[in-house]
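Write out the 3D structure for:
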Amino acid sequence: GKLIQDLGAGNNALHKASGGDKEHLVTVEPNTLLHQVTGQVSGSVNSAHHQAIDTGAIGKNIKVNCWSPEGIIEGIEFDNKTNKPWMLCVQWHPERMKDQQNLFTKNIKSSFLSAI
């Protein structure tokens, strides 16, 4: 895959705050591990990034599991999980979420710990 090195001034302002995290909505794709883990179709997450995966260059056997409202990839996972380890990649920081009971924090942590 490819990485967008810098989202640019407009999207940087939406996704990264100087000195702290911002929050924004993510929309979760159905039939993904993220959907299975959280049970959610959307939710609020923290954000502190200025880079993202290029939508035109997703890696082999990788699928997008969630998006920001601006169309920025916010998470990926294996497309075909057969004989693959647990992998759930997200652009937010579950460990830094203000609400540690948020399903995008609590359930990701629980699922990860169950998988190891």
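Residues 26 and 63 are 15 Å apart (CA to CA).
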